[in-house]
Design goal:
The complex is a heterodimer of chains A (111) and B (117).
Chain A lengths: L3 E3 L4 E4 L4 E7 L4 E9 L6 E7 L2 E5 L2 E6 L4 E6 L8 E9 L6 E2 L3 E6 L1
Chain B lengths: L4 E3 L2 E4 L5 E6 L6 E7 L6 E7 L2 E5 L7 E4 L6 E5 L8 E8 L11 E2 L3 E5 L1
Parallel strand pairs in B: 2-11
Antiparallel strand pairs in B: 1-3, 3-8, 4-5, 4-9, 5-6, 7-8, 9-10, 9-11
């Protein structure tokens, strides 16, 4: 069993929809949670960074962490075709230096 | 551009040849990481440097792989006697320890694609 599970999709939504992306994890020592966006054949781009449980909002993006359920989410409001990409969740322990990634969810926002 | 820079972006090599990738981190970032990503998978950690010291290596980093960061600035990743299974995107990332709540934010480069034929 992988430490981080993420539905690979693909997920297809119409423009303007609210998108919900999720990851579950098994390692209770994870304390820092990140979402990266990756366009085809490009490097991952950091979108959101949260510490421990709670919500964090940045523009159209909201990240949620529920440590009791070992579940994290990324919500995208008013989705745009330019949001079409693969979204990777990543996490690390408090004293750790390496990120553990999910497999990524491929998102397509259609006109 | 002041982001993480990687060269070459693409490399096609014959099985058995050696290849080397270079990474220039964001200026003043003292931590540097190498990850590997294959199609349909998330990046997997390979190794990590703090300044010039290599502090952690993954089991994925076989004896054919070697990474250096001689002066604590740029880094190289060399793969000797390449195999077809080495075909992947090799990602470099860098960070600096931040005492604020942001912690240790890791920024990735665009990656170096390796195809072994």
């Amino acid at each position: 069993q992988k430490e981080v599970e993420q539905d690979p999709g693909p997920l297809s939504v119409p423009e303007g929809a609210i998108v919900s992306l999720n990851c579950t994890y098994s390692n209770s020592a994870f304390q820092y949670f990140m979402w990266y966006r990756q366009y085809s054949r490009k490097g991952p781009e950091l979108l959101m960074y949260t510490y421990s449980s709670g919500n964090k909002e940045d523009g159209r993006f909201t990240a949620q962490v529920d440590k009791s359920s070992k579940y994290i989410s990324l919500f995208i409001r008013d989705s745009q075709p330019s949001d079409s990409a693969t979204y990777l969740c990543a996490m690390r322990t408090g004293g750790g230096n390496k990120l553990t990634f999910g497999t990524g969810t491929q998102l397509k926002v259609e006109l | 551009d002041t982001g993480v820079s990687q060269n070459p972006r693409h490399k096609i090599t014959k099985r058995g040849q050696n290849v080397t990738f270079r990474c220039d981190p964001i200026s003043e970032h003292n931590r540097l990481y190498w990850y590997r990503q294959t199609l349909g998978q998330g990046p997997e950690f390979l190794t990590y440097f703090q300044n010039e010291a290599q502090l952690e290596k993954s089991r994925l980093l076989s004896d054919r792989f070697s990474a250096e960061r001689p002066k604590g600035s740029f880094s190289t990743l060399e793969i000797q006697r390449t195999e077809q299974g080495d075909s992947a995107m090799y990602l470099c990332a860098s960070s600096v320890v931040d005492t604020s709540s942001s912690g240790n934010t890791i920024y990735f480069g665009e990656g170096s694609w390796l195809t072994v034929v």
